[in-house]
Amino acid sequence: MEHLRSTETYRAIGVELAQQFAPRAAEWDKTRSYPWPNVAAMTDAGLMGMTIPRAFGGQGASFFDVVTVVEEIAKACTLSARILVEANMGGISAVMAYGTDAQRAFAAPIVLAGDKPAICITEPEAGSAATDMQTTARRDGDHYILNGTKHWITGGGVSKLYLIFAQVLGDTDTSQGIAAFLVHHDPVCGVAPKGFHIIGREHTMGLCGMPEAELRFDNLRVPAEMLILPPSGLKRGFADLMTAYNSQRVGAGTIAMGVAAGALEHAKRYLKERHQFGRPIGEFQGLQWMLADMDMAVHASRLMLHEAAKSRGTTGHAFPDMMMAARAKAFASEQAIKVVDNALQIFGARGYGDKEPLERMYRDVRMFTIGGGTAQILKTQVAGSLLGMKISQRR
Ligand SMILES: Cc1cc2nc3c(=O)[nH]c(=O)nc-3n(C[C@H](O)[C@H](O)[C@H](O)COP(=O)(O)OP(=O)(O)OC[C@H]3O[C@@H](n4cnc5c(N)ncnc54)[C@H](O)[C@@H]3O)c2cc1C
Predict the structure, then answer these.
(1) Residue 274, class by beta-carbon neighbours within 10 Å (0-12 exposed, 13-18 middle, 19+ buried)?
(2) Are 325 and 381 in contact (CB under 8 A)?
(3) What is the pLDDT of residues 84-113, one digit of tens each?
(4) Minimum CA distance residue for ligand 1 atom 52
(5) Which domains, from first to last, does the chain contain?
(6) Which residue has the CA at smallest separation from atom 35 of ligand 1?
(7) pLDDT tens across 350-362, in order?
(8) Could you give the count of Cα atoms lying within 13 Å of 22 in the half-sphere of its Cβ?
(9) Closest ligand 1 atom number to CA of residue 86
(10) Does the beta carbon of 85 lie inside 6 Å of ligand 1?
(11) What is the pTM of this model?
(12) CB distance 370 to ligand 1 below 6 Å
């Protein structure tokens, strides 16, 4: 059993791994390959599944510990930071919060051995309107039969655990509510459930080493004991399961902020290093103010994200406060895009080329206002919370 580590110890591990990961970050991007050596290093360092409770073999680390290490890793390798978030926040935290002991005992060792579980919610006709999903689960004895298509599933094909969301049909074939099913898919080790198909991969502008997959389920049989249902039952269960997304959002916002913090460090270096008109470009006030704005944006994002990460449990849930998570992710992701853009600008033509990591960081950071709840949807949540009303999105 691992001893509990301090947040500072986690940060130091993050700094060390970032140095180790930086030299190959461009390679994963160019070759569009999953960074397995980095996964092995994060597994060896005890970071994969660090939030899993000690009773199930993890370290019971806090979300604040995770964001501390994620920020450091994101400065060097966005891809690895993303894997780390998904191995600790989101899917696995939903299993740990709402799963049975048997489900938790099943999932924990897979993640602790290096897996990043995949969350399967989005469908071609159900993006922001997730409850419009058409994937169905029909009870058949001691199994459920799943049918449907999911797309933009992060890690599809490299992940071994899949949390598949589906409309659970009743006797009259009408939906009783949405629940999640925990499915193990690991063909390399001979675990290939019939009816589970990975049918395609998106060609993305950034985070190119991460597969974003299309999945199809054709009469996929899932044992009934793999249904994950919060105590609130089928009607309310989806809303509770989605609270797990509050942690994922804090993690995603932290990756964006970490990339921005990394870009800021590069910009500081270049402002002193690059000379034009006989002096370092950092002596030009226009660039100094740009740098100050970048620093303020990163700092404000970090404060909001830390506040959200520490809010776990304050609202009676096992996850961060919804409003704080939405506010922090929307703000951090929008600010990060601007910060990385400005850092690239400070590098001039050099920033546009691939001798520096700025162009990759610029492409990587773009997705954080989209994936895991768009900035618009998150702002709607913030406004709803401020006004004390659930803002209807339906006609
Ligand atoms: C890199 C990446 C990884 C992803 N990984 C996963 C994953 O692992 N699992 C998963 O299930 N999904 C994943 N997604 C999907 C992601 O969650 C969806 O893209 C997101 O929910 C938005 O859905 P959409 O793309 O269909 O956009 P749409 O919902 O079609 O929205 C289109 C535009 O309309 C806006 N809009 C929509 N509704 C409203 C509204 N009510 N008010 C204001 N504006 C609105 C949106 O903000 C957006 O700008 C991923 C996406 C990306 C890009």
Answers:
(1) middle
(2) no
(3) 999 999 899 999 999 999 999 999 999 999
(4) 371
(5) 7-112 (1.10.540.10), 118-232 (2.40.110.10), 234-387 (1.20.140.10)
(6) 376
(7) 999 999 999 999 9
(8) 15
(9) 8
(10) no
(11) 0.97
(12) yes
